[in-house]
C-alpha cells in the first residue's frame, strides 16, 4: 500500500470497501455460497485489521460507524465554533475601536490576520483532523476582511472591487492550506463577484450595481465549473464538488431571474423573447447537467441539475396556472409532475441496471 499517494477521501473509500467486503463474505457464508478455511479467514482478518489501523493512523479516517458519527459532530462543532469566534472578533473590534489611537489600530489590523494565518498553517501541519486549524483559518479570514475594510475607512480609501480579488486570493490560500471547503466556497464567491463587478464596470455601470445585470455571473460560472477539469483537486476532499455546485448555482440563478424579468438583460431584444430564451436554456442546460452527472458519476452535479430543472418547471407552472386555477388543482398537478419525473428517473435507472448486468 502506498499511503502517501492517497487522499483522505480515497483512504476513507478503502475503509468502506473493506467493511462492505467483510459484510458480503459473512452473507455468502451464511447462504452457503462459498466458505474459506479458518486459516485463510484468520489471515484475511489480520491483514484488514492492520490495514485499517494504518489508514486510521496516517489519514485519521473513520474505521467504524461510531467514529463516523463522532467525526460529523466534530465537524459541525468546528464550523459553529469558527463562525462564533469570527463574529465575536467582529463585535470586539467595533466595541473598543474608538478608544484606540490610529497607529495601534493599524498595527492590530496588520498583525492579527498574519499571526492567525501562521497559526492555522502550523496547526494544519501538526493536526491530523484539521479541526482547530480550520477554526484559526476562518478567524484569520474574518480578520483579513475587517483589515481591508477598516484600513479603507481610516485612510479614506475609495471602495473598489479589487478588495474582493484580494479576499478571494487569501481565502484560496487558507482553503488549500487547511483543506477547508467553507473557505473555498467563500473564495469562489468572492472571485466570481470580482469578475462580475469588473464586467459591470466595463459595460458602463457603477461596480456596486453589478447585481442589476445577472448575466455578469454567467462567464465566472463557466470558468469555475471547468477549473477542476484542468487543475486536479484529488488531494482535497470534496473540492471538485464545491467548484461545480457553486458554479451551477451562479449559472442557474441568473437564468431563473432572467427567465422571469427579461428587461434587465444585456440583450437588446423584446423582453418576452429574452424570457423565453432563458427558459429554454434553463431546461436544456439543467437536463444536460443531470445527464453529465449520471455519466461522470458526479452526484452533486446530478442533484443540483435536478433541483433547478424542477425549479424551472414549477416556475412555469406558476406563471401559467396560479392566477386562475383552483389551488387544490394546481398542487395536484405539481404532485402529478413529481410522479412523472419519478417514473422517468426510475426508467433511466432500470436501463442503467440492465446495462450493468449485461456488461
Structure characterization notes:
This protein has 359 residues and is an all-alpha fold. It folds into 4 domains: 1-59; 76-179, no CATH class; 213-316; 325-358. The chain has 12 helices and no strands.
Topology:
Elements lengths: L7 H23 L7 H22 L5 H32 L5 H25 L4 H24 L7 H17 L2 H22 L15 H13 L8 H20 L12 H26 L2 H23 L5 H32 L1
Helix pairs in contact: 1-2, 3-5, 4-5, 5-6, 6-7, 7-8, 7-9, 8-9, 9-10, 9-11, 10-11
Organism: Shewanella piezotolerans (strain WP3 / JCM 13877)
Keywords: Membrane, Transmembrane, Transmembrane helix
Protein name: DUF2157 domain-containing protein
Provide the β-strand percentage band: under 5%
Radius of gyration: 26 Å
- How far apart are the first and last residues' alpha carbons, in Å? 30 Å
Q: How would a crystallographer describe the biggest sheet?
A: none
Contiguous uncertain segments of 5+ residues: none
**Mean pLDDT, as a whole number?**
84
Question: Helix/strand-derived class?
Answer: mainly alpha
The ordered H/E elements are HHHHHHHHHHHH
The tally of beta strands, per DSSP, is: 0
Share of residues in helices: over 70%
Shape designation: flat
* Helical segment count: 12
Number of domains: 4
Kindly summarize this structure in a few lines.
This protein is mostly helical and 359 residues long. It contains 12 helices and no strands.
Keywords:
single chain, 359 residues, 4 domains, 12 helices, transmembrane helix, DUF2157 domain-containing protein, membrane, DUF2157, transmembrane
